[in-house]
Amino acid sequence: MTTDTYSEIGRYRPSISKDPNGILDYTFNWTDWLATNSDSISSYTVTVDGVTLVTDSRIGAYVTAWVSGGDPAVQRRASITCRIVTAAGRTEDRTIYLIVESR
C-alpha cells in the first residue's frame, strides 16, 4: 500500500496507487473470516467506482477483480467493493481503495 490516504466523509483509509493505463487484478481473501464463522460463499458481487471492471471470478474463498482505467483529472479516488452472501445467510462487504495517478 502507498502512504497516500483516501478521504471519504472525513475518514481516512489506506489506499493503493493505480496507474490509469494499468489493467490489474485485486484479490479479496475471505478465508479467515469464513473460517471464523464456519461458513462458505454462496454468491458474490463486485462493484467499482472510478475505474472499469474488466472481469471478476471466484475460486473458493478468493474473489478476484480485474480493473482498468481511471482518470485522475476527473476522479482521483476510486474503489472496488466485494460483497459476499454466505451459505448461512450472512452478508459482508470489503472495499479496496485506489488513488488513480500516472506513475
Share of helix, binned: under 10%
Count of spatially separate domains: 1
Distance between the termini: 14 Å
Shape: elongated
Structural class: mainly beta
Radius of gyration from the alpha-carbon trace, in angstroms: 14 Å
The CATH class: Mainly Beta
Structure summary, number of beta strands? 9
SS summary, helix count: 1
Helix-strand sequence:
EEEEHEEEEE
CATH topology (level 3) name: Immunoglobulin-like
What is the correct CATH architecture?
Sandwich
Low-pLDDT residue spans: none
In the sheet with the most strands, the strands line up as 3-9-8-5
Major sheet description: 4 strands, mixed
Question: pLDDT average, as an integer?
Answer: 90
Strand content: over 45%
Write the layout of secondary structure elements.
Blueprint: E1 5-8, E2 11-14, E3 16-18, E4 24-29, H1 31-36, E5 41-49, E6 52-59, E7 62-68, E8 77-86, E9 91-100
Parallel strand pairs: 3-9
Antiparallel strand pairs: 1-2, 4-7, 5-8, 6-7, 8-9
Please give a structural write-up.
It is a single chain. By secondary structure, this protein is mainly beta. The chain has one domain: Immunoglobulin-like. The chain contains one helix and nine strands, in the order ββββαβββββ. The strands form three sheets. The protein has a four-stranded mixed β-sheet, with no helix packed on it. It has a three-stranded antiparallel β-sheet with strand order 4-7-6, with no helix packed on it. The model has no long low-confidence stretch (mean pLDDT 90).
